[in-house]
UniProtKB/TrEMBL annotation:
This is NPH3 domain-containing protein. It comes from the Eukaryota. One of its GO terms (biological process) is protein ubiquitination. Residues 142-161 are annotated as: Disordered. InterPro entries: NPH3/RPT2-like (IPR043454), NPH3_dom (IPR027356).
Length: 515
């Protein structure tokens, strides 16, 4: 009796056997390797159970055999038995053969992982690393002598350069997708918050850097790397500043910013960088803004400076003053950076003025109001005399700001002179007071070696007065030139009016002279 499918029974294939029976077959889902895997199994079946098994196809054949249940219970010397025998020699394979077999598992990774094939290949891979390196993978740091299993070339290293001995396998493993590296680290107990290993941390840095630079990471792909990015940052923070310099930490931040790093890990990394921010240079701070808009991530700089001030209250002024504002910013961001540090954190504002000068040069279209607003972050009393003179001569600085700066310098000089002149007389007057209580007022006169002479202070005060007068004269000269220009324009207009006036108006007398 022949059975036929009804209209409600969709099928992909109908097989008629001897005209007696029709078998309705549907699509096979999740078949390992897809058509390639099915073709290999078909060749095995139609060739009386014979097929050439190689390093390149053993992973696919093994997973197909597991998927179809091709065990000895069904047929002797079945496909699963043959692949098992071939895989027994895995520890005699070369490093390259293991990598090839592992890489070929990528299209059917889930099946290869569930049947234990990935675990077997990973163990063989780790054995090769151990055989060709004296480094202990589970130590935080160590000296080592190692060589590539393919070339046998030794790489000797110790101390801070010990990471060079791991480069050969670092680079080779970059051909594997993130899911393989996830499994690799989980097998070793070094994934996520379990990562306390310097070797694996540096490997992850190399792996993610290669992935970012070689392939480019799209938004829909970066999620695959997020776990690895978190693992890297956890290891970096755990190892601390003894293992990573400030510049290397910024490189880590640049790399992981291209992946889906969790907010918790990012905060921990930024806090660690902030603790070493006094070692940073301007180039270190120029981290790309990415998809947030803008060339550089200005908000990152602001966060780091705030963290630096907040978590480093006991740092010396010497460390704090080394943080300088970035001149390539909008005015609001520039001021945010400059004013993140209190005035007492800087014993000189010369570098702040230099940054303002650079900013004004790169933004020549700023209005007078904007330039005045920009200069509000200056503390004129902490400007050196040379910087103040340069500020007064700078045509980009508003005149009012220049006068204020020079006046501040003059008052500073006068105050210093007053203190030095009156210190002795003030002390003598206080000594004459009859103190009936236990309180005492003690004034100390500075040593002459530490103070400037009166002649030097008088010369400086006269120099400041001269600069103030020079600025005022320049402003007055500029004003006279402007008035002369307006006068010439008015004379020209009046001359044209005279030419156009009617003849009967000539008898009214000459026009008044304007200038």
């Amino acid at each position: 009796m022949q059975s036929k499918p009804t209209m409600s029974e969709p099928c992909d294939l109908q097989i008629h056997i001897n005209g007696q029976q029709t078998f309705v077959l549907s699509e096979i889902d999740d078949f390992p390797g897809g058509p390639d895997g099915f073709e290999l199994v078909s060749r095995f079946c139609y060739n009386n159970g014979n097929i050439q098994i190689t390093v390149s196809n053993v992973s696919l054949l093994h997973c197909c055999a597991v998927f179809l249940g091709m065990t000895e219970n069904v047929s002797s010397i079945n496909l699963l038995h043959q692949t098992d025998v071939f895989l027994e020699g895995i520890f005699y394979w070369s490093w390259t053969e293991i990598l090839i077999c592992l890489k070929n598992c990528e299209p059917f990774f889930s099946c290869a992982e569930s049947c234990g094939l990935i675990e077997k290949l990973m163990c063989s891979l780790l054995a090769k690393i151990a055989q060709n390196s004296d480094v202990n993978l589970f130590s935080v740091s160590s000296s080592s002598t190692s060589s590539s299993p393919e070339t046998g070339s030794p790489v000797v290293s110790n101390g801070s350069s010990s990471r060079k001995s791991w480069v050969w396998w670092f680079q080779d493993l970059t051909i594997l997708s993130p899911k393989f590296i996830d499994h690799f680290l989980r097998t070793l107990g070094a994934y996520g918050s379990d990562n306390n290993n310097l070797v694996f941390t540096r490997f992850l840095f190399h792996y993610l850097k290669t992935a970012l630079h070689s392939n480019g990471i799209r938004n829909n792909v970066s999620a695959e790397y997020s776990g690895l990015a978190d693992t890297l940052v956890h290891g970096v923070v755990l190892m601390g500043k003894n293992a990573f310099s400030c510049r290397r930490l910024f490189w880590v931040l640049r790399i992981v910013s291209g992946f889906g790093l969790s907010s918790e890990r990012r905060t921990a990394l930024e806090r660690m960088i902030a603790g070493m921010l006094d070692q940073a240079t301007l180039d270190d701070l120029l981290v790309s803004g990415g998809d947030k808009g803008g060339v550089y991530d200005v908000n990152l700089v602001l966060r780091l400076i705030r963290l630096f001030v907040r978590y480093n209250d006991k740092l010396s002024l010497h460390k704090m003053k080394k943080i300088g504002p970035d001149p390539n910013l909008k005015i609001s961001k520039f001021l945010g950076v400059a004013e993140s540090l209190p005035d007492f954190a800087r014993d000189s504002f010369d570098q702040v003025y230099r940054a303002i000068e650079i900013y004004l040069e790169s933004h020549p279209t700023l209005s007078l109001e904007e330039r005045s607003r920009l200069c509000r972050c200056l503390n004129y009393e902490k400007l050196s005399l040379e910087a103040c003179k340069d500020l007064a001569k700078n045509p980009r600085i508003p005149p009012r700001i220049a006068v204020q700066a020079l006046a501040s310098q003059r008052s500073t000089v006068q105050m210093t002179e007053f203190v030095n002149d009156d210190s002795l007389s003030l002390s003598s007057n206080i000594k004459g007071i009859d103190n009936t209580n236990d309180y005492q007022i003690v004034l100390y006169k500075h040593n002459n070696d530490d103070d400037r002479s009166k002649t030097d202070m008088e010369t400086e005060r006269l120099s400041v007065d001269k600069e103030v007068m020079k600025v005022n004269l320049e402003r007055m000269q500029w004003r006279v030139v402007e008035l002369e220009k307006v006068c010439r324009e008015m004379k020209g207009q009046m001359a044209r009016m005279v030419k156009l006036a009617p003849q009967n108006n000539l008898g009214r007398g000459p026009l008044p002279r304007l200038c």
